């Protein structure tokens, strides 16, 4: 089964979701940014008035990288869009059923693989480097699970996407671009489990998932169980 997804955002899921997927399944999804050269902003630093002249707006579909209009009054910056996915649900029979995720449109090309997922642990977000991403679900001949549900959307390139803030947590920093750093703390009475600081790496992936904040009483309780 091959599905081509070209909307700016959407949702898709494994076959039969949330009922068990089939054995011996081979499913492929290719997500393509609807407008890879979207105009994401214009630089008006060289403009004397704070607003770009309305006449500039009719050039929005021009595929040029920079468009200088009316003696450099407007500079449009065309930025490549990339694909971000996040998982609403994920569970595959660990080690035997896999979801392979790759960059670009060459399905199965081992040089483009971003992640091979199985079991139930997944990254918060996965972001492509190009305007396309492929996903390949492969299941073996026995034992299934519920599969997955994925949300996807286009974001600006050189970004890892917004990973959110932990429940009962506080986030410091708001840059999701390459090199951006986010710091996390938990509200009073909650203990932080995971990384306090994560960074957006050059491959558009966060260095770790965001941490979770759990009630200290629960933390102590699990500690007691561990000790018992
Ligand atoms: Ca299986």
TrEMBL record:
InterPro entries: CUB_dom (IPR000859), SEZ6_CSMD_C4BPB_Regulators (IPR051277), Sperma_CUB_dom_sf (IPR035914), Sushi/SCR/CCP_sf (IPR035976), Sushi_SCR_CCP_dom (IPR000436). SMART domains: CCP, CUB. The keyword Amino-acid biosynthesis does not apply. Pfam families: CUB, Sushi. It comes from the Eukaryota. Keywords: Disulfide bond, Repeat, Signal, Sushi. Disulfide bonds join 186-213. Residues 1-155 form the CUB domain. Residues 158-215 form the Sushi domain. This is CUB and Sushi multiple domains 3a. It comes from Neogobius melanostomus (round goby).
